[in-house]
Amino acid sequence: MRHVKLDDSTSGITICCESRGPVSIHTHTKFCQSVEFYEDIEYKVPEGLVWIYFPLAKRETIVAGWVRELVSNLNDRRPVVVLSTSLQRGRSFGPYIHPDCRSNYRFQSLGSQLGHHVTGFCYNDMGITASTKFKLTLAHALEETTHCTALEPSFGPIANIPESCAIPDWFYSHASLDGVMRIRMCMDKQKPHLPCIGIVLVYSEREEALGQWRFDREIEEIDPSGSIYLCVGRTKVGPYVKGIVVEKPSEEEDWCEITLAGTISWWFTSECSQVVIEKDTF
User: How many CB atoms lie under 10 A from the CB of residue 76?
Assistant: First the structure.
């Protein structure tokens, strides 16, 4: 079993997963961003990995966790880690589940102790890809902290799955565009088409990560003061985001203007991305 520590210096959590479930869990701090684990995991699982990053605000803690899984007697239950925080934020680290299928799933509590924040994860190394059944437990603080209140587990909002290509397992992330002060972009320049695989939206007191995020890839930043422009492309596998800029380039490409209002949804897989602004798909 592998233990991952959470403490006052923890600034975020990365869970590497595939469509069948989680593979590896890692934490980050403001002072040190370890990147060696990305290549280590990819060496063992070379295809189909999705990297989901969950940034934590100052003094924000994890207060509860669940595993979402299929109601089945089979070993392949498609487990997904679901977490909630002291700021009433929740995150699911797995594929989006259509409302018609949600009755086939259940949430198994990871031993939440209301009022005692989580101090670590303990799980079988390599998760769903290990030879043993996936196991995950939470460690909690001994002392009670009064600001810890837990959310109930949720599938998240009901959204319209992109229909642009036949991808069975889309991952889903969303956030408000209101109050965004900075946008950080994760550019995977190790791939030939140089995609933007995800973004971090920076607000005055928190951050939200959309799509995939890797600290071992090139990070670019923009400070929008009005509209931003997003460019999309397509490979044989499906759609992807080329980039985001504050001024519309003169090149004749598929650049779409986005005002900083409403909600942005970022659908993604290990290779594809599709962005939805309110009811408009880009």
Answer: 12
Give the DSSP H/E element, type plus range, for residue 82: strand 80-85
Assigned token pair, 82: 């679901």
Instruction: Give the global pTM.
Output: 0.93
Nearest CA to 196 out of 208, 207, 209, 179 is that of: 209
DSSP 36: H
Phi, psi dihedrals of residue 212, rounded to the nearest 5°: -95, 155
The CA distance from 282 to 279, in Å, is 10
Q: Tell me the one-letter amino acid at 225.
A: S
Placement of tokens 């030879």 in the chain: 131
* DSSP, res 160: P
User: Residue 90 to residues 13, 152, 155, 160, 221: CA-CA distances in angstroms?
Assistant: 13, 9, 10, 20, 26
Do the beta carbons of residue 223 and residue 149 sit within 8 Å? no
Closest by Cα among 265, 270, 271 to 235 = 271
pLDDT tens track for 173-220: 999 999 999 999 999 999 999 999 999 999 999 999 999 999 999 999
Q: Which of 220, 214, 216, 201 is nearest to 260 (CA)?
A: 201
Sole residue written with tokens 């594809």: 272
Cβ atoms of residues 183 and 201 within 8 Å: yes
What residues pair up with 157 in beta bridges, in sequence order?
Answer: none
Query: Cβ of 189: how many Cβ atoms within 10 Å?
Result: 10
Q: What is the dihedral of CA 107, 110, 19, 214, to 10 degrees?
A: 130
Amino acid at 127: G
**pLDDT value at residue 33:** 75
- Domains, the chain, ordered by start: 2-140 (2.100.10), 171-281 (2.100.10)
